[in-house]
Amino acid sequence: MAGDVSAASSPAPPNKFASQDDELGWYKTNYQSVVEELHDMMETSKDLEQSLEQELEQSDKEKAKLQEKVEGLGFEVDEWRVCPSPLLNSCYAVVTTCATLCVEL
User: Fold this and answer.
1) What is the pLDDT of residues 33-86, one digit of tens each?
2) Among 31, 37, 27, residue whose Cα is nearest residue 2
3) Angle between helices 20-82 and 2-9 (to 10 degrees)
4) Per-domain residue ranges for the chain?
5) Distance CA 42, CA 88 (A)
6) CA quadruple 10, 11, 15, 16: dihedral positive or negative?
């Protein structure tokens, strides 16, 4: 990619110049062009970097929210695992009582 930029922005100098001033002018012009392209590239790079940093921050926030949700759901799962045990014990007690009453009848 850098090869493309340098090839497009700095063409090969002519074999011969009419004077040293012409040669110096040619190099100054190409130098200015390269400096402008570099400046534009640096601005674009800075904008892209800021955009990527914002996306990264948003991703980190979303990840933190999802991790909190996972932790909350983990606690909820644990509660549901513990919750049925007392209910089952009560249910067994009622069934045993009913069975005892049925036998007595």
Assistant:
1) 999 999 999 999 999 999 999 999 999 999 999 999 999 888 888 777 776 677
2) 37
3) 150
4) 16-104
5) 69
6) negative
